[in-house]
Amino acid sequence: MSRLRLYDTLSGRKETFRALAPPRVNMFVCGPTVQSAMHLGHARTYIFFDALARYLGHLGYDVFYLMNITDIDEKITSAAAGAGEDPLEYARHMTSSLKEDFRMLNIETVSKFEPVSEHVDEAIRQTRLLLEKGFAYQAGGWVYFDTAKFSRWGRLSHQTKKDLALRPLELSPAKRNLNDFGLWRPEMLVEGRWASPWGLGSPGWHIQDTAVTIPLLGPQYDIHGGAYELVYPHHEAEMAEAESLSGVRPFVRHWVHTNLLKTEGAKMSKSMGNAVTVKEALKSFSADEIRLFFLSIHYRKEAGLTGLDAAQKRLRKMRVMARKFARVEEMPGPSLGEFGRALDDDFDTPRALRWAEATLMAASKHADRDKARRMAAPAVAGMKVLGVDLFEDS
Predict the structure, then answer these.
(1) In 238-289, which ranges are E strands?
(2) What is the rounded CA–CA span in Å between residue 111 and residue 107?
């Protein structure tokens, strides 16, 4: 259906995109932990996957885009205590704020948001099954996944056993291996509201995601996305859980990860205290300007915030050029010329934007208005596919 090639984190190379059951494409992207407002580091990832989903739709695919909402976490419990609220009620308020940020950023392709708190029974079922299959064990009120039983542990993050030994998870003398991770935790993170065969507690972070995806997408699906920092241990653990549960391999056909957004040389994050929230950014820049800025940097490269002013000027210039034409219709069919060829090459949006800008410049100088409109059409259409309407301010 397309010649789209995406860099796959697992294989370490560009792979031709092939849907499992075309035209359906199932895509899951890790949503945020909703202890505080969404920041631009999150926005970079979600704008990218929104643009990718839009392009897949343009190519004729029927995209089902699933996103989880992590509403079970110590940070949420702490933030809720500070606000004098029940943790789940606090998480619901923050989820509403997140969805409002998505709306303001024109991120509109997510088919379903799923709070992980609504899938605890499934997390318990999966934990029980992993115990029965011998991939997990109980210790000190915890249930741990036994990474020694999963031969592909470290494969997604391309780490050797020596590498992994230097990155222990959840330090505890009760664990068999340094890299074992919790499937069920005895801490009462949300006032101990969940009973299980192993006592009151809550599901571990990693199994929260497979508890959402496996019932809704099945044991195997097309695209799993998220920020690069989640490759290890989060996505590594998801792959181990899912493939151990089902025996189906690979769990995901295409692992796609965005790189970090940094400010003053450090990763933008809530814990670092250097986060710029979406609502703060939208006071100075429009949603289209923020989108153009992020799409002007390849998704696998690190980004900073120094180019936002330039993106604002760039978009204004492109819209001034576009005003020289009557509104042009989108090109029929999936072809967008050189713009589409850039996107097909690992979603190279910087190259696509450069071509669109150059094409609009050339078309705006052309004496023949009809020919100029035909020249400009794929650039205008391509920008709209990515979520930027060049006629919006006309």
Answers:
(1) 252-258, 262-263, 266-267
(2) 11
CATH of domain 22-263: 3.40.50.620
Report residue 99 as tokens.
């969805």
CB contact at 8 A, 281 and 287: no
Structure token pair of residue 7: 């860099």
Classify each residue of 299-308 as buried b or exposed e, where b means 16 or more C-beta atoms within 10 Å of its C-beta: bbeebeeeeb
| Average pLDDT rounded to a whole number, residues 142-152 | 97
pLDDT exceeds cutoff 90 at 371: no
Decide if 290 contacts 308 (C-beta within 8 A): yes
Instruction: Tell me how many degrees the CA angle 45-51-56 measures, rounded to the nearest 5.
Output: 125
269 touches 261 (CB < 8 A): no
Q: How far is CA 388 from the centre of its chain?
A: 20
For residues 221-236, average pLDDT: 97
Which residue bears the tokens 């029980």? 128
Q: Which of 52, 100, 92 is nearest to 71 (CA)?
A: 92
Residue closest to 116 by CA, chosen among 153, 87, 82: 87
Continuous segment of H or E residues that includes residue 210? helix 205-217
Could you give the CA distance from residue 30 to residue 230 in angstroms, rounded to a whole number? 9
- Burial (CB count within 10 angstroms: exposed 0-12, middle 13-18, buried 19+), residue 379: buried
pLDDT reported for residue 275: 82
3-class DSSP state for residue 164?
helix
Q: Where are the domains of the chain?
A: 22-263, 285-299+306-385
Cis before 250 (ω within 30): yes
Model confidence over 5-19: pLDDT tens digits?
999 999 999 999 999
CB 195 within 8 A of CB 207: no
Give the C-alpha separation, 141 to 182, whole Å: 10
Q: How far apart are CA 356 and CA 361, in angstroms?
A: 9
What sign for the dihedral angle of Cα 369, 372, 378, 381? negative
CA atoms within 13 A on the CB side of 270: 13
Residue 350's SS3 state is helix
The kind and range of the H/E element at 7 are strand 5-8
What is the spatial distance between Cα 30 and Cα 33, in angstroms, rounded to a whole number? Answer: 9
